[in-house]
Specification:
The structure is a homodimer.
Chain A (H helix, E strand, L loop, with lengths): L8 H9 L5 H19 L2 E3 L2 H16 L11 E5 L26 H8 L3 E6 L27 H8 L6 E5 L5 H7 L2 E4 L19 E6 L2 H11 L29 E4 L4 H4 L2 H16 L3 E4 L9 H23 L6 H10 L4 H22 L4 E5 L19 H6 L3 E8 L5 E7 L5 H15 L11 H5 L2
Parallel strand pairs in A: 2-3, 2-4, 7-8, 7-9
Antiparallel strand pairs in A: 1-3, 4-6, 5-6, 5-10, 9-11, 10-11
Helix pairs in contact in A: 2-3, 7-14, 10-11, 10-12
Chain lengths: 460, 460
C-alpha cells in the first residue's frame, strides 16, 4: 500500500471517512516524510510537532466517537507564512516579523480549521511575498529555484509533505511555483477568497490561492475557502457553487483560446514547442483550439502592474521600513524606495488600465471556454538568488481572472513544465471542469506514483 | 392664485395629476420667471426654448389622452452643466468643452426623463465643478456668491425658476450653495445615485445631489434618482426604499448629535449662536440634543480630502490640460499642477484615512438618529471671485455619508443660514424623516410665499 502521505487529498478524505486511515497514522506518515526530505528541501519554517500530534489524536478520537468536523477532518494542510495563525509565529519571511505571534487566525486558516483540517505548519515565503528568496529548493533539482513567493507551499505539495497548501499571488506567486514544482496551483478570481489576516503586499492585486496534486483536490479546497467575508470587503457576494460536481459544458466542442501574442515571443523555444504539442493533443481529443486576439490594453499590463504593486507595497511598508531599515532585504528595499517616488497620477493611470483591461478581457472571454498559455517562460531557472520571471502570470493577477496551472510535461533538463488555463470572473466552476478534462487528456500527473516524481528522481 | 412657477414640486405634481395645471402653463410661467430674473442672476447657460415648449405641449397632449409618463410628468427640472444631456451642449463651465454635445444622457438625466420630467436647461457650474466661479449671483444679494460648484442650480431653485435642479458634490458643492441660497440641498450616500455620464472631478469623492425647496420635494426626487446602475459600478445594490412615505422613528425622543469640535471654533460668531438657538428650538420640541465625541481620524479629514481630490483631479485632467493649457482657469490649473506632484503613497495614505474615518463614523452614528452642524462657517461671503469655504461640508463628502441642508434663518446681513443634518450610510429614509420633523419645528421655509424670499427682498 502507498504511504498515506502520498495519497491525493480526495483519497485521504475518502479513506478517513471510511475509517481505513486514521488522522494519527496520516500525521505520522507526513511527519516522517518531512523528516526525511525537508533538510534538503527546506519548505517549512515552523512546525509544532507536539501540538499537531495532539490535534491528530483529538481528530482520531472524534472519529471513533462518530464525529466529523467537516470535509477536511484530520487532513494536514500547509500554510504559507504570511497567513495569520493564532498563537503560532507568522514571520512573513522577514526579520522584521521574526517574533510576531498573531492573536487570531486569518479567515482562510479559520475556514480550513472549521472544515476539520489540521494546520501542519508554516511554509517558507520570500520576504513579505516579494522577491527576496526563501531558502526552499526545487525538489526536482536542488540547485534550481522552486519559484516564489509561495516557495515552501509548492515544494511541500510536490514532495507529498502535505496534500495541499495555502499560497498567495500578487504577480505570479502561485502559478509560477506550481509550474516550476510540477503541481496544480489555483489562483481564483480577485474577491473569491478572503484576505483578512494575510500580510498585504499590494491590496488591489493580492489573491489567496493554493496548491494541490490534482484538479479534483483543488475543487475541494476552493469549496472550503471561497465566499464573502465581512472582514474583507473586497470579497464578492457572488454565490459559491459546488465545485466538486464536475459541471457539464454548455458548448461542445470545448473552445480553448490560445494567447500567442507576447507569450510565444517571450517563451524559451522548448516551452513554446511543448505548448504546441499540448494544443495538438487537446485538439485531437476534441477541443477547438482558437487563436485569441488580445485587446490593445494588454500592451500596458506589465507596466501598470509594476506601478500599482510598487506604490501599494511602498505605502504598506513605509513606516515599518523607516524603523527597520537594516532588516529589509535588497529587493524589497528597492521596491519600497522606488515605490515611494511614484506620482499619484501614475498610480491612478495604472488603476485605470487595470479596469480597462478587465473590461476588455470580459468581452474577449465571451468567445472561449477558457484561455491557454504556457504557465512560465522557462522551466525553473538554475540558482537560488531569483524566484524566476513573473511576466506570464502577471496579466491574470492584474485582471483578477482565475487561473490554474496544470503540470503538462518535462523539460529537456528534467524539470516540470505547466500550462496556464484562464477562466472568466467568478467562473471557477467552469475553469475546473475544463481543467479536469485537460488533466484527463494529458495524463500527466504530478503524483509521485505516476511517473512524474521528484521523489523517484532524487532517489529519496 | 400663486404663479405656477412658485409652487413646490409636490404641489406641481398634484395639480398636474388633477389637471388643475397644464405642463404648458407651467412651462410658460417658468420661462417668464427666467426672463425676468435670469439677466440678474445668471443661473442658466443653455435653454432651448423651442424644444422645451414643444416638449411641454407633448406632455400636455399626453395628459389629455390620459397618459402619464411617471411621477414627474411635465415638470421642468434644471440640470447642472456637467451632466451629459443627449444632443444638448454640456460645457462643464469650461472653454475646453465649449462645443461639446454629448451623444447620450447621463443616467441621472435619463431617469428624470423616464419619470416624465422635462430638462428645462443647463445651469451654470464652476469650471469642471472646481473653484473657478460661474457668473451666477446670489439671489439674496447680487454682490455675494451663491456658493459653488452647483451655483446655477441652487440660485435657480431659490428664485423659483425651477422647482428642483441637479447638482454634484466632491467637497461641498451641493450643501454650501444650498445654504448660501436658502434652499434644501441633498447629497445622498456615496454610491446611491449613478454618476454615469457626469464629468468626473475626483471619482472616489464625487456625488450626485440636488436642490429643492422642501424636504418632501427632495424625497420625491431621490426616489426617482436612487438605485444601482450597471454603468457605474460604484453604485450600491442596496434596495431603494419609498422615501415619500415618512417613516416612523423607532426611538423616541429623537437623538440629535451636535458636532461642536471644529465646527464651533471655525464658525462666525453669528453662525454658532444661530446654531445654538436652533438646537434649543429642537430640544423644546422634544428632541434630545447630545454632544458628539468625534473620532481621532476626524483631525486628518481635511488633508486627506485635499490630497485625494487633487491627485484624482490631476489624473483626470492631465492629458486634456497638456493640450488646452491656455483654456484652463487659475484655480483648476493650480489644482492640476499640484495634483501632478502628489506621491502615490500620500494618495494611498489619504484613501486609508478615508476608510478609517468612515468606519469610525459608522460606530459613532449608532448613538444618534442624525448629526447636526451649521452647514457653512458664514453666510454667503461678499464678492464673486470665490465660492466660499468648503470645510464644513468636506467631512461628509469624504465619509460618503448622506447630508441635507435645511434653511434655518437669516443672518445679520439678511442672508440665509442653514443647518446640515448628517445620516448613516444608505439611511436617507431616516435622514429625510428627521429633516421633515426639523423643517416643521423650525418653520423656516425657503418658499417665496412664506417670508424668506429673495424675490420680495430684491423687489423683483
Amino acid at each position: 500500500m502507498a504511504e498515506p502521505c502520498s495519497l491525493y487529498l480526495t483519497e485521504m478524505i475518502t479513506q478517513i471517512r471510511r475509517k481505513k486511515l486514521s488522522p494519527l497514522n496520516l500525521m505520522e506518515s507526513v511527519l516522517k516524510r518531512i523528516d526525511s526530505l525537508d533538510p534538503l528541501i527546506q519548505a517549512w519554517v515552523t512546525i509544532d510537532r507536539k501540538a499537531i500530534q495532539e490535534e491528530a489524536a483529538r481528530h482520531a478520537d472524534e472519529i471513533s466517537r462518530g464525529k466529523m468536523r467537516g470535509p477536511l477532518h484530520g487532513i494536514p494542510i500547509g500554510v504559507k507564512d504570511i497567513f495569520y495563525t493564532a498563537g503560532m509565529k507568522t514571520t512573513a519571511g522577514s526579520k522584521v516579523m521574526e517574533n510576531f505571534i498573531p492573536p487570531f487566525d486569518s479567515t482562510a486558516v479559520h475556514r480550513l480549521k472549521k472544515a476539520g483540517a489540521i494546520v501542519l505548519g508554516k511554509t517558507a515565503t520570500t520576504e513579505f511575498a516579494h522577491a527576496d528568496p526563501a531558502p526552499t529548493r526545487n525538489p526536482w533539482n536542488l540547485d534550481h529555484t522552486p519559484g516564489g513567493s509561495s516557495s515552501g507551499s509548492a515544494a511541500a505539495v510536490a514532495t507529498c509533505m502535505c496534500p495541499a497548501a495555502l499560497g498567495s499571488q500578487t504577480g505570479g506567486s502561485v502559478l509560477r511555483p506550481a509550474a516550476y514544482c510540477g503541481v496544480v496551483g489555483l489562483k481564483p478570481t480577485y474577491g473569491r477568497i478572503s484576505r483578512h489576516g494575510v500580510f498585504p503586499f499590494s491590496w488591489t492585486l493580492d489573491h489567496v490561492g493554493f496548491f494541490t496534486r490534482s484538479v479534483a483536490d483543488a475543487a475541494i479546497l476552493l469549496g472550503v475557502l471561497a465566499g464573502h467575508d465581512p472582514q474583507d470587503l473586497s470579497t464578492a457576494q457572488e454565490p459559491v457553487p459546488d465545485y466538486n460536481r464536475s459541471g457539464k459544458l454548455a458548448r461542445k466542442p470545448l473552445r480553448i483560446g490560445v494567447v500567442r501574442a507576447f507569450y510565444q515571443q517571450n517563451s524559451e523555444e522548448q516551452v513554446w514547442s511543448h505548448t504546441e504539442k499540448i494544443m495538438a493533443k487537446l485538439e485531437k481529443a476534441g477541443a477547438r483550439i482558437l487563436e485569441v486576439k488580445m485587446p490593445p490594453s494588454f500592451a500596458a499590463v506589465q507596466d501598470a502592474h509594476r506601478i500599482i504593486m510598487r506604490a501599494e507595497g511602498a505605502a504598506f511598508h513605509e513606516k515599518l521600513f523607516e524603523k527597520n531599515l537594516a532588516k529589509y532585504r535588497p529587493k524589497l528595499r528597492d521596491l519600497i524606495e522606488t515605490g515611494l517616488l511614484i506620482p499619484g497620477v501614475d498610480y491612478l493611470r495604472a488603476q485605470k488600465i487595470k479596469r480597462l483591461f478587465r473590461r476588455h478581457m470580459e468581452a474577449v472571454m465571451k468567445n472561449y471556454d477558457c484561455l491557454l498559455t504556457p504557465a512560465t517562460s522557462s522551466p525553473a531557472p538554475p540558482g537560488l538568488s531569483s524566484t524566476g520571471n513573473p511576466w506570464f502570470q502577471v496579466p491574470w493577477s492584474l485582471s483578477g481572472l482565475p487561473t490554474i496551472n496544470l503540470p503538462s510535461g518535462m523539460s529537456q533538463e528534467g524539470l516540470p513544465l505547466g500550462i496556464q488555463l484562464i477562466g472568466t470572473a467568478f467562473g471557477e466552476g467552469k475553469l475546473l471542469t475544463v481543467a479536469r478534462w485537460c488533466e484527463k487528456v494529458l495524463q500527466v500527473s504530478c503524483s509521485p506514483r505516476v511517473g512524474l516524481s521528484p521523489i523517484n528522481k532524487q532517489g529519496y
